[in-house]
């Protein structure tokens, strides 16, 4: 996501042609969730334009299409998976991880299907799996079962932390909408690989979002000290201030781990003037 309407004129220049929007976003943040690929595989030329707007060390966490994960549930997916992998090939090293988001109906009984699917994937990519059945988080046997499959495949478990969001009732239209749509996920802060990925959902109130991510400051700093390279995505229900919040999170982590590289200097959203 790099074309949010409320960012235009604030974080991104407006008007800005589509071929420049990602370049502007990449001056604010050095990673992005590739969520649109869940709904349709993009044209290879489109993906090439994404690569052309970003540096080789920019991180795309690209979601595998729903036809693979939700409609066919990881079975008989050779053709749509081949088409998807061919389409994202221009990203090269920017494809930080391919994100396998599974439906809430995916239960521990389905883990053997996931194991078979992961074994069939090419080793040219890293993979990260997001599950939404709370049993995986609350039942130690289910946790161990999934962790075993992921470790064997060198794949990461992506937690979606919604605990801060659901701590108190919603207070805005965007929060009320998210209240009915977002999953209530238990907290998990265990990394399985050297590239952990976290998705965090705060509130539209900045102070409450910052309060809720304090545990992730500690966890992320600890991972960095261990030599891991984490990627953290910060969301709010309206996402209006997400780029600014992401940079604030990075600054808070960097205060704990000073050797962490600074984020790039943002491209001005408004043209510079002489006065």
TrEMBL record:
Coiled coil: none
Top-level lineage group: Bacteria
Record-linked Pfam families: DUF72
Protein name: DUF72 domain-containing protein
């Amino acid at each position: 996501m790099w074309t949010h309407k409320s960012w235009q004129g604030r974080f991104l220049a407006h008007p800005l042609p589509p071929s420049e929007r990602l370049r502007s976003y990449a001056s604010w943040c050095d990673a992005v969730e590739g969520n649109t690929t869940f709904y349709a595989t993009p044209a290879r030329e489109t993906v090439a334009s994404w690569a052309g707007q970003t540096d080789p060390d920019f991180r795309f966490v690209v979601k595998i299409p729903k036809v693979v994960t939700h409609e066919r549930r990881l079975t008989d997916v050779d053709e749509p998976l081949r088409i998807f992998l061919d389409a994202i090939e221009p990203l090269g090293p920017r494809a930080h991880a391919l994100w396998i988001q599974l439906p809430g109906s995916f239960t521990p009984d389905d883990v053997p299907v996931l194991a078979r699917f992961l074994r069939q994937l090419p080793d040219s990519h890293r993979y990260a799996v997001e599950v939404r059945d709370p049993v995986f988080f609350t039942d130690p046997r289910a946790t161990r079962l999934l962790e075993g499959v992921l470790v064997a495949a060198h794949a990461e478990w992506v937690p979606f932390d919604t605990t801060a969001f659901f701590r108190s009732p919603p207070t805005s239209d965007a929060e009320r909408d998210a209240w009915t749509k977002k999953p209530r996920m238990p907290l998990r802060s265990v990394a399985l690989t050297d590239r952990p990925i976290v998705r965090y959902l705060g509130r539209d109130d900045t102070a409450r979002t910052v309060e809720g991510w304090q545990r992730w400051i500690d966890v992320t700093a600890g991972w960095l000290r261990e030599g891991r390279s984490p990627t953290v995505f910060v969301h709010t229900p309206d996402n209006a201030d997400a780029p600014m919040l992401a940079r604030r999170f990075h600054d808070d982590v960097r205060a704990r781990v000073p050797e962490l590289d600074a984020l790039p200097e943002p491209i001005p959203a408004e043209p510079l003037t002489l006065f």
